[in-house]
Specification:
By secondary structure, the chain is an alpha/beta fold. The protein has helices at about 10-25, 35-45, 60-70, 85-95; strands spanning about 5-10, 30, 50, 75-80, 100. Helix 1 (about 10-25) links the parallel strand 1 and strand 2. This is Stage 0 sporulation protein A homolog.
Length: about 110
């Protein structure tokens, strides 16, 4: 059975590229375009990985991560334009598994 990945990204171009590459690699991909939808989808689905942006509408990615971590240890890759050390440290304090800054190479995923 293919692994399921939740991509949480409000930028259409970015989530389309990520989704296409992951699907071509054999993964099942679902997309959430805001933090509230991401939490709802996470709770309904059984995901093997979450790719999570920080700057999202409704609920930011740090809050989404905090909510998910209270309920699951699913791997989370934070993918964001926030490249300051303090932002990266905050991500790791919230127990993300990796922190990738934009722009990024799709090969890093």
């Amino acid at each position: 059975m293919p692994k399921r990945i939740l991509v949480v990204e409000d930028d259409f171009d970015i989530h389309t590229i990520i989704s296409e590459v992951l699907k071509e690699s054999g993964y099942l991909v679902e997309v959430a375009t805001d933090g509230l939808i991401a939490v709802e989808m996470f709770r309904r689905g059984n995901f093997d990985l979450i790719v999570l942006d920080v700057m999202l509408p409704k609920i930011d990615g740090f809050v989404v991560c905090e909510i998910i971590r209270k309920e699951s240890s699913v791997p989370i890759i934070m993918l964001t334009a926030l490249g300051e050390e303090e932002d990266e440290m905050k991500g790791f304090e919230l127990k993300v598994d990796d922190y990738i800054t934009k722009p990024f190479s799709i090969n890093l995923l």
